[in-house]
Design goal:
alpha/beta, 6 helices, globular, Rossmann fold, binds 4'-phosphopantetheine, 5-stranded parallel sheet
Length: about 170
């Protein structure tokens, strides 16, 4: 049986930390479906279409083993619809734990057949998040080595002309 994981997230935008998790996930799973889902607690900078395009361009190196998709609804419903046995999430510092624990237990309550698998990001990405990268970029900080080159270009296009605080 093919082992399939859904790697869900906001991906606003995709970072090198996300790519690191996909690389690690491919050691465990035959295929990974990277899926943009709506997080009701976050306001996004990039539209779903823009995020999808950035993810597609970033994941080309993985060829047929990584698919990129988006879905509006419950994650566990999407996972069973796609025949996935697992939800893959990256874990960085301890601060991630409480939210991830809650999400995993809610997903388990909603569907006991889908397991959540946590992978630790590489040490290099332990403090990397889309939110902190956007904040640094908004104020002109150099985040070039934290995101794929195409994402860096789009961030500069979107935020580069903004005066700090705009
Ligand atoms: O990258 P994020 O923002 O931490 O990802 C969170 C995400 C999108 C995976 C989460 O909000 C999610 O699963 N949203 C879809 C709705 C859902 O199924 N929520 C979990 C059970 S309430």
């Amino acid at each position: 049986m093919e082992r399939i994981a859904i790697y869900p997230g906001s991906f606003d935008p995709v970072t090198n930390g996300h790519v690191d998790i996909v690389e690690r996930g491919l050691i465990l799973f035959d295929r990974i479906i990277v899926t943009i889902l709506h997080n009701p607690n976050k306001k996004s900078l990039f539209s779903v279409e823009e995020r999808l395009e950035l993810l597609q361009m970033t994941m080309t190196d993985f060829n047929h083993r990584v698919e990129v998709d988006c879905f509006d609804g419950l994650l566990v419903e999407y996972a069973s619809r796609r025949g996935a046995q697992a939800i893959l999430r990256g874990m960085r510092a301890v601060s991630d734990f409480e939210y991830e624990f809650q999400l995993a237990l809610m997903n388990r309550k909603l569907n006991r057949d889908v397991q959540t698998v946590f992978l630790m990001t590489g040490l290099r990405w332990i403090f990397t998040s889309s939110s902190i990268i956007k904040e640094a970029a908004r104020f002109g900080g150099d985040i070039a080595d934290m995101v794929p080159p195409v994402v860096h270009r789009r961030l500069v296009e979107k935020l580069g002309q903004c005066p700090p605080g705009a």
